[in-house]
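Hi, here's the filled form for the chain we discussed.

Project: internal
Contact: R.S.
Residues: 171
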Amino acid sequence: MTRTLIPQPLTKVGFAPFGDVLDLDGTPDKIINQGLCGRFHDLAALDFGDGRAGISLFQAQARSLPMTLEMMERHPDGSQAFVPMHQNPYLVIVAPDQGGAPGMPLIFWAKPGTCINYHLNVWHGVLCPLHDPGVFAVIDRIGEGANLEEHWFNEVWTIETTKELSRKQPT
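And the returned structure, exactly as it came back:
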């Protein structure tokens, strides 16, 4: 049996059960820097439990579709915000919790420049840039204790491409 997932566009409403979408949608909350900069204020619900916020850089290898989804992870003690340092689409993989394991995965594709923040304890896939360089700034919890839980699927999922994504794939 083939278990297939199809990416859908990332929207604030569709992603809301799992986290925040950070983008330049709408008008700035405030104009600053002598009128030359718009500030879109406080876009993510960052939560670091008993730790502190840290900023790291991640460099992930580009993926191509179709691809296999074998595992998901979550962080019980802190949220994780991903800020792409490139202007390329990437995949965002999440799942609701189902008895301590990921339920049916959802696959979103994020438009270039869109940032996401996974809420605390949300099942999510690993970084899936669709082009090199797959560089992201990550704001997450730095602190004592294990803040990573992995779940490996007994049956893997296949993530297929869409017409929209196939136009954005490298050749």
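Let me know if anything looks off before we file it.
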